[in-house]
Amino acid sequence: MGKGSKKRSSSSKSHVESGASSSGDIAKVPKPVMVAFIGIELIFGLVFIIVGSLNVDKCNIDKMIPIWLIMMGVVYLVTGVHEFLQFLRSNKPAHANKGRGFISLIITGVLTLITVALFVAGNVFVYRAWSVGPDFGHYWFENGCDMGAYMLSFVAVIFMDVLFGVIMIGILAYACCHCFCKK
């Protein structure tokens, strides 16, 4: 090596050269996994909207259950489209090592708040109806509800409850590790 050449140490590698990307970068997720998650989200959104729309007047036990299905379906569709557009943006060379833009963060935050509000509302609607005991054979009765609409909302709420529990355990584990583990 000549006198004028400089050797770069491994600690002086730039952020781009190290292959790291900013936190929250969607490009870290393998493409097939991301496409599968977005596809599932879009499919569930459509199913929720269709089932809710077909049963708006067939759930007397709690009229909000089909409306909740429609609202969750719309949120899933909007979130899926938003994440797909973010995924396309993150795969462009000009945006490869950039995180989400400010507007994307705002949209994600609003969608997250709406999802949490609907999560709480779904628990209220579904478990309140469950306590009364839905009659699936006679949806026109006072405690009647279409079995497909109710069971879809019931399974969705249970799945979200489990997911919420796993997220809370993960946050607690991270917090404990961060606070008590030596670095």
Molecular structure report:
The protein has one domain. Helix content is 63%, strand content 0%. It contains 4 helices and no strands. Helix 1 runs antiparallel to helix 2 and helix 3 crosses helix 4. The longest helix has 34 residues. It is globular, with a radius of gyration of 23 Å. InterPro entries: TMEM272. Keywords: Membrane, Transmembrane, Transmembrane helix.
Give a short summary of the structure.
This protein has 183 residues and is mainly alpha-helical. The protein has helices at 31-54, 64-90, 102-132, 147-180. The chain has one domain.
The number of domains is 1
Mean pLDDT: 80
What is the ordering of alpha helices and beta strands?
A: HHHH
Give the termini separation: 37 Å
Shape: globular
Secondary structure topology:
Elements: H1 31-54, H2 64-90, H3 102-132, H4 147-180
Helix pairs in contact: 1-2, 2-3, 2-4, 3-4
